[in-house]
Amino acid sequence: MSDLLDDLPDGVLVADESGSVSYLNRAAERISGWTREQAAGRPWGEVLQLRDAGGLLVHERSDPYRHRIRITTGTPEREFLLRRRDGEDRWVAVRASYRRNGDGRIEQAVVTLRDIERRRRLEKHSSDLISTVSHEIRSPLTSVKGFTSTLLRKWGEFTDEQKHHMLTMINHDADRVTRLLTDLLDVSRLEAGRLELRRQPVDIAEIARKVTARLEHETTDHEIRLTAPARLPSVSGDPGKIEQVITNLVENAIKYADPGPIVVEAGRDDGGVVVRVSDEGPGIDPQHQPHIFTKFYRRGSGERRPGTGLGLYICKGIVEAHGGRIELERSGAEGSVFAIHLPVTEE
Ligand code: ADP
């Protein structure tokens, strides 16, 4: 019988008529961190330190052994935070059933435990996602709404120059929303393994040139310099996607670095080509560096510039889909250097 229960994915804990633990199956050992031997004879509330959403300990609040309600033969499944023996907390779904004698006293209680930590984490993750995305959509939309309603109400009161300025802001904010939605689509494609690459021979120096020329007009604080040889071996890749990656790196440099030069350098590399984007910004603290390519990661919670933390994650996905790699080569007080390496197909 107990061997059979060991095969169950759910934890099973049995307590006797005094509320002492008499049995734990293997899954219950794994979930609670208690071994059968350690738990045997201990009060169930010590082995299962379950807290409800309000932080109250379940066995103190409603111990079925103490508060004798004759009619209950069990409890429906509920979710609690379990403090494991090693002190770690994890979410579990718990259901109890009681066998009572003629006076209503519990003779045996069987508690089942299901580890729902992963599901809870996913739920938390998607609610974080919803709040980040909502915020990122709401702020440009608020500005679009503000400018358009002002223009509609007081069109005649503004000079052409003022109207032009407001329409430029509206245009910019609408682009921001479109960009965000494109990013989200990219993320879902990357995660489903369905990022489509329209491959063709690509000259990355040409793409670097195009990005530099375009972004130069978008910043007055930074001078964007390009160094690229006249000819580089071509890469088999999707030119639009590679442009997206280089654009993202340069835009990050514009966004996060103090005024100063940004250098885009395309060149040869062992068996491939490389594009480096260097800035003279404040750099990224060593503690944040390992995480910057992670989805939704932004430098600490103190990051005030707008963003979702998706940019570098998408860049990594695109570069890796091309068989290449992206790295933060260097980052410190003198600035940051990001590099993308791509394999070449023909010399
Ligand atoms: P986002 O810009 O939307 O926050 P990214 O994935 O592009 O997302 O970047 C992740 C984080 O890495 C940023 O929040 C920022 O803190 C940091 N970062 C990226 N590029 C730079 C840079 N050139 N200089 C300093 N910090 C940077």
Please describe what this structure looks like.
The chain is an alpha+beta fold. The chain is 39% helix and 26% strand. α7 crosses α10 and α9 packs antiparallel against α10. The radius of gyration is 30 Å and the shape is elongated. Bound molecules: adenosine-5'-diphosphate (ADP). The site of adenosine-5'-diphosphate (ADP) has 20 residues, from α9 and α10.
Give helix % range.
25-40%
Class inferred from helices and paired strands: alpha+beta
Bound molecules: adenosine-5'-diphosphate
How is the main sheet built?
6 strands, antiparallel
What series of H and E elements makes up the topology? Answer: HEEHHHEHEEEHHEHEEHEEHEE
What percent strand? 25-35%
Query: Which blocks of ≥5 consecutive residues have pLDDT under 50?
Result: none
**Mind telling me the C-alpha Rg?**
30 Å
- Count of helices? 10
Average pLDDT reading = 90
The main sheet orders its strands as 2-1-6-5-4-3
Distance between the termini: 68 Å
**What overall form do the CA principal axes indicate?**
elongated
Count of strand segments? 13
Throw out a few tags for this protein.
347 residues; 10 helices; five-stranded mixed beta sheet; elongated; binds adenosine-5'-diphosphate; 26% strand; alpha+beta; six-stranded antiparallel beta sheet; 39% helix
